[in-house]
Design goal:
The relative contact order is 0.19. It is globular, with a radius of gyration of 16 Å. Helix 1 packs parallel to helix 2. Strand 1, helix 2 and strand 2 form a beta-alpha-beta unit. It has 74 residues and is of the alpha+beta class. It is built from 3 helices and 2 strands; from the N terminus they run αβαβα. It has a two-stranded parallel sheet.
């Protein structure tokens, strides 16, 4: 297992690290919502440009009861 720290655009840095280290799989933590402007966030850019399998780990799951409450009109 190797941890890589780079500066700059996350998707660009990850593509460069993949080319340098040739990993078998990439594991990435992802958020439910993106703060990146535009139609897609960093996770989408990473998935679209990666040349290795990517395992996306979401944040802690929201209990189903809370999700239903959020969708129920008040």
């Amino acid at each position: 297992m190797r941890f890589v720290v780079k500066d700059g655009n996350p998707a660009d840095a990850i593509v460069e690290a993949i080319a340098q280290y040739h990993p078998s799989i990439l594991v990435a933590g992802v958020k439910r919502a993106s703060e990146t402007p535009g139609p897609h966030g960093t996770a989408f850019a990473l998935l679209a440009r990666s040349r290795v399998p990517v395992l996306c780990i979401p944040p802690e799951p929201v209990p189903a009861v809370k999700e239903r409450e959020a969708c129920t009109p008040q």
